[in-house]
Amino acid sequence: MGATMPVERVGVSFEPELLERFDSLVSSQGYPSRSEAIRDLIRKAIIESEVEEGSGEVIGTLTFIYDHHEGDVNNRLINLQHDHHQEILFTTHVHMDHDMCLEILIVKGPSVEIRNLTDNIKAIKGVKHGELVITRSSI
Ligand code: NI
């Protein structure tokens, strides 16, 4: 959002203990004000909710690790990624050790497609952990 956007002020009530814990989070994460921290939390909640509902266009990163010895994991990952070539902008691969690989994909497209891709990758035997981090340019 640009600095010239009009803003509206709202009052929010907190229990003292919750406010104290929130202030400590605001400070430890280096936010200049409570307002900026609250706006970020609201944006995050909106994006997550829209991805859950499968609406809108998103961009983000999908990070996952897998054991390349397990089953047919290499072929399955390659086939799945080619099926989603329109949503995958970039891939990288790091050989973590003798067995484990790390891949990071930069993904962009309809949130329903990105969510499907993420679910399908995480479901492949051999993939041990995967996390999608998404955002969008207008929020
Ligand atoms: Ni590898």
Quick summary:
Helices cover 41% and strands 28% of the residues.
Beta-strand portion reads 25-35%
CATH architecture of the largest domain: 2-Layer Sandwich
The CATH homologous superfamily of the largest domain is called ACT-like. Chain A, domain 2
Spans where pLDDT lies below 50 across 5 or more residues:
none
Main β-sheet, spatial strand arrangement: 2-3-1-4
Strand count, sense and closure of the main sheet?
4 strands, antiparallel
- Please give the count of helices: 4
Derived structural class: alpha+beta
The ligands bound in this entry are: nickel (II) ion
In N-to-C order, the SSE pattern is HHEHEEHE
CATH topology of the largest domain: Alpha-Beta Plaits
Question: How big is the Rg?
Answer: 19 Å
Determine and state the CATH class of the largest domain. Answer: Alpha Beta
Tell me what the structure shows.
- The chain is α+β, with helices and mostly antiparallel strands.
- The chain has two domains: 16-53; 57-135, ACT-like. Chain A, domain 2 (Alpha-Beta Plaits, 2-Layer Sandwich), CATH 3.30.70.1150.
- It has four helices and four strands, in the order ααβαββαβ.
- A four-stranded antiparallel β-sheet has the order 2-3-1-4.
- β2 and β3 (100-110) form a beta hairpin.
- The longest helix has 20 residues, at 34-53.
- It is elongated.
How would the blueprint of this fold be written?
Elements: H1 16-28, H2 34-53, E1 57-67, H3 73-83, E2 88-95, E3 100-110, H4 111-123, E4 127-135
Antiparallel strand pairs: 1-3, 1-4, 2-3
The structure holds nickel (II) ion.
